[in-house]
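Recap for those who missed Tuesday's class. We walked through two folding examples back to back. For each one, the amino acid string is listed first and its predicted structure tokens come directly after. Nothing is annotated here on purpose, so try labeling regions yourself before you check the end of the notes.
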Amino acid sequence: MPHDPMRPKKRRVVVTGIGAVSALGSNLNDTWNGILEGRAPAAAVTHFDASQAPCKIAYEVNDFVLPEGLISDRERRFLNTAMVYGVKAVAEAMEQAALVPGQVDPERLAVCLGMGLCSADVDWCERIFLPKKYADPSLDEHIRFNPEQLASVVARLVGAKGGNTTIHTACASSGQSLGEAYEMIAYGEADVVVTGGADSMINSFSMVGFDLLGAMSKRNDAPQQASRPFDVGRDGFVMGEGACMLVFEDYALAQARGAKILAEICGYGVTESTYRITDLHPEGRGPVEAMQMALEDGGTAAAKVGYINAHGTSTQINDRVEALSIAKVFGTGTGAPKVSSTKSMTGHMIAAAGAMELAICINALRFQILPPSINVFQQDPACPVALTEAVATPTELSFALSNSIGFGGSNTALVARRWL
């Protein structure tokens, strides 16, 4: 929605911590290095028997270990896979931000997370409900399916009493959670917000559902080359999983406590396309408006944006319409921003995608390097954007933008500024 001119922003919002879990690694550093190396760790699915599924490949998290002592055994029992990834990412982000419970006013510390369908455990449902074990005490584990469960645990972990919000807008979930967290601080509703997203939908129920929609790649014989954003031969996305969490903070507070600032968040746009549940409007109406709103919100000229991490799912419609949307806002000539979709390396992390991709934008700004565009064997001429090179490339960046586009028509855009 348009921002109320009678409610001007008075506070700057900065990022002081980031944590990540992905198929590239169980922390931000390993994930970022995997991006720079252009790795695509997609492989045959092991989380379930996918032998009969049309799509048999995914970007799975491997060798993940939850550090001892973060949560109790009872809490662990009530968390599904995605939520456990989220707990680990929150711990990493809080450590980098050098924040411990009680350090800031708990009434001014909030949690705002993007969560998905929480990966319904089909095997568990069959085990409990098909035999009609109504008296089975393990029925209480149904709480694992509740999206708000992670935010409740995170609030306890970080000592947050200033609000607890869970957002589900499909693939735009964590992008919207970041934007709402940003506005909470900018408008003085909170001083610190732990935000981001987590998801794990590598299961038979979810993957077959996306298969039936025609959204997933069928390149089972070449998993590492299957995700091809903006390539003429793209045939669908490849599922990923993981989490990415960030600590957003009022600049004055971060400065007062001597925190290391990673970047500034300086613009947010959110729109609804109101077109079709699974398709973008062919003219890119919603994404265009979200990007324009984010630029206007931060007072950032389009010409200043040097890099865009596109939603870029590797589906025919999404990539074409998003590319046209970017071209409408930023142009296609000399000076147009470089564009990439890092889903080719992380897989589509669904509700966690937006947070991961903003984190990658922030690292691109910090280290002045453009993430590579891999698996682009022939760029689709219907996608008129300036893609990054096939290898990570040094550059000069001041501003970066991250897009998220969700089923149902939700669109978000976030602008980040390099911190000098």
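Example two. Treat it independently of the first, because the proteins are unrelated.
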Amino acid sequence: MKLPLLVVPLLSGALAFAAPPQPAIPVIFDTDIGNDVDDCLALAILHSFASRGEIRLAAVTITKDNPWAARLASAIDTFYGRPNVPIGVVHDGQTKDDGYLKKALDAGHYPYRDHPEDAVTVLRRVLESELDSSVVIVQVGFSTNLARLLDSPGGRALAARKVSRLVMMAGDFAGKGPEYNVKTDIPSAQKLVAEWPGPVYWSGYEVGSTIKYPARSIERDFGPPGANPVADAYRNYLAMPYDRETWDLTAALYAVRPADGYFTVSAPGRVTVDAQGKTAFAPEDGGRHRVLSVNDAQRARILEAFLWLCTQPARAR
């Protein structure tokens, strides 16, 4: 059904016609938060888009098998004014260390919820509650949760019906070797590339590695230590100051703003994952996969977008 146009009166007495505002896109963020700090910045970007009314953060699901991962995700959601975002966690996952997680939380004594559900349970419930072809999934960790969704009863059909696109930070399409998110759970990555029923957009290692988030922004734009959990995660990941690659941020930006020219999108094709976790892309008519790339001008625009999105914790809607 087409939405009616809005009639806007102008000062001159003439009438202008404008399309009504679009509904917020439901986004699921699937992350291995705690293995690197770019997950935290990517989550900040999604909250910024949510505060602008462009998306609704429908769930966060986690592929790092450590309880502090869900706690930090909850603390970030709470900080940005969305304490009730559903959080799902992996069980029998691949990485279990604390990393910087507890240190980041302790830095500001940030409040968090501590009763996460199983990730597949959350994925199924959230997808079933949304309109058909409405959900965008941003996967910036391992493929464990989404592969298990496909294995669950009716999971593939549910994904086909509800998900409009899957945007992944995964793979290396410059031929340098297996990328971390893929090689950490190769069977799940292989299952996803073979069976995911809808469009998949890949932001490979080579994209985010050429765009670095500057330490000067962490030191200048987020307040002092203890004021922002994203900045405290950054400070506790590596010794400051350091500029960090923006792998996961690229997936978050493309997922919400695919038509804004930030990235160049390949022709349709197919991604494969070999036994060592190496990824390859081949063009293919009717293929469901596309690979992102960037040029120098796009890199400059993307970094500018990252800076204003990450540093604006606006009010929740």
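Answers for example two:
Confidence is low (pLDDT under 50) at residues 1-16.
DSSP finds 13 helices and 15 strands in the chain.
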